Structure formats: structure tokens, C-alpha cells
Amino acid sequence: MRKRSRPNVIVMYADDLGLGDVGLYGGSACRIPTPHLDRLGAGGRVFHQGYATAATCTPSRLSLLTGRYPWRFERSGILAGDEALVIPPGVHTLPGLLREAGYATGIVGKWHLGLGRGDLDWNRPIAGGPLDVGFDEAFVLAATNDRVPCVYLDDDRVANLDPADPIEVSYDPDRPLTQRPIGRDAPESLSMPFSHGHDMTVVNGISRIGTMSGGESALWDDATMSDIFLERALGFIESHADRPFFLYQAFHQPHVPRVPNPRFIGATDLGPRGDVIVELDWCVGQVVAKLEALGLAENTLLIFSSDNGPVLNDGYADGAVERCGTHRPAGPLRGGKYSLYDGGTHVPFIANWPGVIEPGESDAVICQVDLFASLARLVGRPVPDGQAGDSRDLLDVVLGESEAGRDELVTEGFDGKTALRSGPWVYIPPHPGPARDENTGIELGNADQPQLYHLGEDVGQARDRAADKPEVLRRLELRWREQTGPAQRNTRHPTAASPPTHRVPGRRPRRLPPQPEASRGAT
Ligand code: NG6
Ligand code: CA
User: From CA 414, how far away is CA 417, in angstroms rounded?
Assistant: First the structure.
């Protein structure tokens, strides 16, 4: 097939989308129509073993952009909405690399990698954000759609902010900002009740994590968020049609709160969660249509994936659990978001490049952390010395010219806990903590004893083989220690300023996790 150099690159990144939420993966059990993603897959390469590095958002995104495992950084847990940028100065990023290669670089959608360098003031241009780590243009929500501040950032400043109505944000439970109703005190103000957490400042009838005051003219409307991001994404493509561009399109769907545009209400029988996935799918179709209309489709590598596995009840009573029926968000996988089981990190992964990638399927193991080195080769740039150390150049796998994927991968569940995949085996070390998350009902993978699964024979991780395969268990345990031992876990890059330590209501502040009992004293 014809190969073109320096194609446009679009990375589409869904938020909490499971393997079983996409028709081409979920098969007949999938009760959400996803025709545009199905077409993208049918015309491209569908990876059946595509992974995020982590089962939550911030760490996965950090890896995607830096080519390093999240647990190597000092801070990589789920961030509050006002925390400092987690990409330390000196760490090279994927957009930075592509910019050096002459690409116009843009991000549209969810950021959630922190803002500022410990001096965050929402009312001034923010130094320490997307523009400081390689993006030329940015239109983002700061953290998540369930966290304050509920405003968009246009490049480095809050969009539509009235200087006479400054924004203040607090994640300190002892210092709530009470200008707006607080969800737990004013249930009558809510259009969507919270089920756990999410009981602070109410914006658009939805109570969020954290409190905010001011910024009335800048508040987003949840129901138009998808259209606003789409318009920005299409505008970016259009305005850079004449030069190579890199677009990181980070969807907010189907993360909570799930508020579809009225056009999509009732698109499925599954309630808001199903409907916003149809909305997301439609947006994918709009981008593809734009590329085709501009004659760019055959010169664009498009990669679609998700930052972590699925969750039904993630804090709002929106009917996702009750209306799920026979739909299986994680497909055949065990666990979901937050989990050390495969459902946490094994996600949809599609690569599409008409005329270059031959349609087909792949069983090669590939991870989002590999995009850094793979795309570096695609655009003819070396990976800078000492950078992106966990990223493997799997460009040939992406392009469908090789099946030689990863033989080893470290995945992260909740709170920095890790597991090791090696060949078809997965080793989950003993980790303290509940086996099941009481809020979401998801199995986290924590246990007193080590667990071992053979994914080739048992994709649903139903049969723990630790007892009957002691030699495999020992081998993987050793490898896991070598890979993730204390010396490997911290970044050696200096941070500009220590971040403020805010407490996220309902969550304890993130610390580097203690090593499980079994590995203490190990070298
Ligand atoms: C959790 C939130 C959850 C979600 C998650 C981040 C509570 C009780 N739960 O702390 O709702 O926001 O953080 O999701 O507050 S992620 O996809 O961005 O990682
Ligand atoms: Ca997520």
C-alpha cells in the first residue's frame, strides 16, 4: 500500500468508554448503536488487545502524552480541579515532538493534567497548561465535567469570563465557597441527584466535586458541550488543512455527569449513558466527514481509544445501572474503571488511515504509551535521549505490517496500584484495600494473595492459576518487582513548585502507594 510521510494525526480519546460499548467489539450484546466507530474499525485496524496504562483518567493521559508509565511520576493520581500541572518541566511530550516536526498541534476537550505551577489564578492567563507542553492551540475543560470550575479554557484563559465577576475555586472541605447552592444542602436545586460524592457546588442543576464562586458568564452548558468541542475540532482541522496537524480530541463522554444534547435523548434504551455514547459516535462521524470533505482522509492517521474502562454508577443516579439490561460495558472483561482486572485498562483501540492501513484485526498487545515512539518514527523524529522511556515503537503494528506487539505491560488500577501482563499471563500482586469498590460496585482486584490469570484461555479472568502455576507466578512476580520497585517509581525530573495539597472531598490525598507486604524488603 502507498505510504505517505507526515500525515495528519488525530488521537480521539473517549472518557470511560468500555470495550463492550462499541458495536464492533461488543457484538450483539452491545445495545448502543455506534455506526461511525464501527465504520472506522471496518475501514482500519481493530486492536483486540489495546490498553490504556491506567484504569483512571489523569494517569492514562499522562502516559499518552509523555510515553512514560504514570507511576514513575511524583503525582499522577486523579487530580482535583485546581491542582498544578503534573507534567514536570523538562519532560518531552507527544505534541511537543510533533510540533518540532512541523505539525500544528491542538487539543480540544478534556485536559485533567493540572494547570498552573502552584500559583493558579483563574482570572489571569494561566502559565502551566496545554500551551506550555507542546500544544499551539487549546480549547479544554480544566479537569472533568463533574469537577469545578465548570468553565472552558480557550488557550490559556477562561473563555467568556467577565473580569468584574472573578472565579474562585476551593477543594478544601473546610473552606467551601457558598455563593451558589451546595448540592447536599439544597437537593431541590438538583435535576440529577448525586449518589456518592458530587455534592458540592450546583451548576446547571448538577452538583459537582468542589466549590466555586463567580464566573457566571463563563459557565458551560452541559447539554451543548459536545457541539462546542466538535465545532472547535472541526475548525482546527479546517484551519490547518494545508499543513500537517496533530489534533488530540479528548471527548468528555461517557464520563459523568452524562447530559446528552436533546437531539440524542432517547437514542438508546439505556438512558443518558447510552445516549451520550451515541452522541460521541456521531461526533466521530462528523470529524471523518470533515476529513473526507476536505480531501484529507487519505492523509490522516486517526487513532481512537479510551482513557480507562467503563463504569455505570460513578456518582450520579442517572439510571445507568438500572437500564443497562443485557448490555455489557466491559464486554467479556472482568472489572471496569478503577480495576486492576482487564476491564480497567483493556479498551477500544482502532487505527484508521485509508489507503495506507489495510482493513483488518490484530491480536498484538499495544498500549497508548507506545504512541509516542511510534508516532516519532512516523514523522521522522528521534525520541529524545532519556525521554518516553516506556514507549515502544510499534508503528509497524499500528500500520498493520507486523503482529509483534508488546510482550510485557505494566497496568495501573486505582491509587497507583499496579499489575503486570507478560505474554498471555497477568499477575496481580497482593494489594491492600477492598476487593470491591463500595460506590461503583466494581471489583478492584485487591486481595491478600497474589493472583494469576491466563488471558488467552480465560479472557474474563475467572480462574486464578496462582496455585497451579507457581513457576509462572514466581517469574512474573520477579519481573513486576524489577519493573515497579521503589527505584523505578519516582520521576527524577525536578518540579517547579510543590503543588498545593488540597483534599478532594471523599477521597484521601494521593500519596505514593505503600508497597504491598510481599514486596517489602525486596530489591
Ligand atoms: C472520582 C469520582 C468519579 C470520577 C473520577 C475521575 C467521587 C466519589 N468519584 O474521584 O466520579 O470523577 O474521580 O474520573 O468523587 S476520571 O475518568 O477522570 O479518572
Ligand atoms: Ca476516564
Answer: 6
- List all residues 6 or more positions away from 263 whose beta carbon is below 8 Å from its beta carbon: 279
Q: In the structure, which protein residues have their CB atom closer than 6 angstroms to any atom of ligand 1?
A: 15-16, 56-57, 78, 112, 144, 146, 196-198, 209, 255-256, 308, 314-315, 439, 506-507
Q: Provide the whole-model pTM.
A: 0.94
- Of residues 232, 55, 218, the one with CA closest to residue 148: 218
Name the residue of 13, 53, 57, 60 whose CB sits within 8 Å of the most ligand 1 atoms, as the mutation to test its pocket: 57
Question: For residue 142, how far is its CA from the centre of ligand 2 (angstroms)?
Answer: 14
Phi, psi of 155, deg, nearest 5? 55, -115
Q: Please state, in angstroms and rounded to a whole number, the distance separating the CA atoms of residues 75 and 490.
A: 9
Residue at 444: amino acid letter: L
Distance (Å) from CA 254 to ligand 2 centroid: 9
Cβ atoms of 199 and 317 within 8 Å: the answer is no
The CB density around residue 256, as the number of other CB atoms within 10 Å, is: 28
Q: Rounded to the nearest 5 degrees, what angle is found at the Cα of 214, between the Cα atoms of 208 and 220?
A: 55
Which 8-state DSSP code applies to residue 338? T
Q: Which atom of ligand 1 is nearest to the CA of 315?
A: 11
User: E strands of 429-468, at which residues?
Assistant: 451-454
- For the CA of 146, the closest atom of ligand 1 is 12
- Tens of pLDDT along the chain (523 residues) come to 445 679 999 999 999 999 999 999 999 999 999 999 999 999 999 999 999 999 999 999 999 999 999 999 999 999 999 999 999 999 999 999 999 999 999 999 999 999 999 989 999 999 999 999 999 999 999 999 999 999 999 999 999 999 999 999 999 999 999 999 999 999 999 999 999 999 999 999 999 999 999 999 999 999 999 999 999 999 999 999 999 999 999 999 999 999 999 999 999 999 999 999 999 999 999 999 999 999 999 999 999 999 999 999 999 999 999 999 999 999 999 999 999 999 999 999 999 999 999 999 999 999 999 999 999 999 999 999 999 999 999 999 999 999 999 999 999 999 999 999 999 999 999 999 999 999 999 999 999 999 999 999 999 999 999 999 999 999 999 999 999 998 888 644 433 333 333 333 334 333 333 333 333 333 2
Give the closest residue (by CA) to ligand 1 atom 7. 197
> Which of 58, 78, 141, 437 is the best mutation target for the ligand 1 pocket, counting ligand atoms within 8 Å of the beta carbon and taking the most?
78
CA distance 55 to 410: 12
